[in-house]
Design a protein that fits this description.
Layout: H1 2-5, H2 7-16, E1 33-44, H3 47-67, E2 70-81, E3 86-97, H4 100-114, E4 120-128, E5 131-132, H5 144-163
Antiparallel strand pairs: 1-4, 2-3, 2-4, 2-5
């Protein structure tokens, strides 16, 4: 290589081996969105079959959102049918959240809107418009129901962290065949 290309031949040879004397610069970045999708074991053809998967995906997305200490402004549901046509719906949330309950509820609404009755091969849930939790402007109004949901989410997160992600499930996931 050096005979044919001179000093550039040596440089190409060292780079091809992954060698360099330059310092590696790494900059940690925050996610712009968090999502999860699942290719289904067979083509699902009803909302009743899709709901348990949607609940599980919403829970996973909310869990990852809380793990990143972030809040979301948008929820998106994506479907791919058996002809590989992809369609999705997105909705802006009334307020930023990391609540499993809020994300699941919005995802269910979006699924009802975008499901056309065809056979579904893949379903996905994604949240966007993320911000750090400490960037949130607090409300002066008491939201005791919201506080209760946050305590539940926190407890579930601690159980999952200690005993593994699948240690606890929503009742809606239990009907899964």
């Amino acid at each position: 290589m050096i005979k044919n290309f001179g000093k550039y031949g040596y440089m190409i040879w060292t780079y091809s081996r992954g060698e360099s004397k330059e310092e590696v610069h790494f900059e940690e970045s925050r996610p712009k969105g968090i999502g999860n999708s699942e290719t289904l074991p067979y083509d699902f053809s009803s909302l009743e079959e899709l709901y348990p998967v949607l609940i599980k995906l919403s829970e996973q997305v909310a869990y990852r959102l809380r793990k990143e200490n972030m809040l979301a402004s948008f929820v998106n549901v994506q479907l791919k049918n058996n002809e590989f046509e992809v369609y999705s719906h997105q909705k802006k949330l009334p307020s930023r959240t990391d609540s499993s309950k809020d994300i699941t509820h919005t995802a269910k609404e979006l699924l009802k809107e975008c499901y056309k009755g065809d056979k579904i091969r893949l379903i996905g849930v994604r949240v966007d418009g993320l911000c750090e939790k400490d960037e949130l402007q607090l409300s002066i109004f008491d939201k005791s129901e919201e506080t209760k949901d946050k305590k539940i989410d926190k407890t579930v997160d601690l159980l999952k962290k200690k005993y593994g992600y699948d240690v606890i499930k929503k009742a809606g996931e239990l009907n899964k065949k």
